Amino acid sequence: MDSVLSEDPVALKILIAGGFGVGKTTLVGAVSEIKPLRTEEVLSDRGIGIDDLDGVEGKNTTTVAMDFGRITIREGLVVYLFGTPGQERFWFMWDELSYGALGAVVIADTRRLTDCFPSVDYFEQRGTPFVVAVNCFDGAARHSIDDVRIALDLDDDVPVLLCDVRRRASAKEVMIALVEHSLRTLASAN
Amino acid sequence: MSDSPQWLDEEAGPVVRPYALIRGRTHPSGDAFDLVATVRAIGDPPSGELGPEERHILRAARGPISVADLAVELDLPVGVVRVLLGDLRDQALISVTSPPAVGARSNERILKEVINGLRAL
Predict the structure, then answer these.
(1) Which of A1, A3, A6, A13 should one mutate to test binding to chain B, selecting the residue with the greatest count of B CBs within 10 A?
(2) pTM score, whole prediction
């Protein structure tokens, strides 16, 4: 292990999840240099009725753009951020993304809290450590952290934070809270 | 006027469709490559037969680089880059190191380093 660490760069993956338009791209951009990563993926049955495939029945792939960010901690230690595609029909991509991931940030908007239910379910089922970051949009009714915790039926140990993903300092706090949570999860597993 | 050749800019999309580069294949030979697997160019400089994209990969991978970074660098879908990487690996021109499934994230020292690094951002 040590020889691997000294030779190969250590790459850690963090996923940024949440409903459409909740601020995933903004969060990735606030803490890292953001680049669009193109993936061309096989369409699942779930695309039927959503993607208009009339006349292109032979087409079974589609291009999905993902937000991709990189934070270089030091030479040889890099954290990669991947914004998960929001639409349900792209969920088949999540398994690859979450494989070996350090953890996930689920961004929630209290005006549309149900949008993040699927993400919460997914990471709970996979046993991936995650935090819930409540993005405080201008004009959004403020709810207490306890209300959000109850509404999402979260385990007591899952951190819930209020944040403003447009602000770098706030976005940084969210990332730090996630890594600290992963560290605690690790300690309690040992 | 309508006879003049029509020049297309980037908005029109690539002149060569991405999957034409890899002759319609959608899966690389051998094992799949993780998005954050580390790619490095190895072996002798190739003599001929490589396409411009493959040369581009070898140039970009002179130092270690991740599969995702390569896809951004080449501006190609990840699936296409993976197939190209499979070909290069078959020719022993690159080495690919997959990240350990739980290795780094279960390393307490590394996680603490990440926390300190994030604070210092």
Answers:
(1) A13
(2) 0.82
